[in-house]
Amino acid sequence: MRDVFLKFEDHADALTVIEAAGVTVPAEDGEIRLGYRDTGLPTGMLALKPVGAVCDGLVYAPTGETVTDGDGVEYPEMAAVAGYHVNLRVAEGATLPAELAAHVVAPEPATPAERFA
User: Residue of 4, 7, 21, 111 with fewest CB within 10 Å of its CB?
Assistant: First the structure.
């Protein structure tokens, strides 16, 4: 198996493209929202998850600035990276649907914000 890192304009774009690739996203409480899935996916797709603890698709990166907390500890300031980020695990040898191929992050991040366990 291998992990594929995808980036979309926003949640709506991700939802449109992912559904076009054959993933059905059910409505919950009247809202259609991407979340972690490892069942009901097209052949070859093993797991799909928007990045972030609450599946908000947000990735953060250092701004180059340093901030200091109330205890005087300095740490890098972080800011959201543009886009909506989704991780996809696919079976070894599986072909990535053409709809998703255009959204693969390239080059693959050396230190992804999040990986499957």
Answer: 111
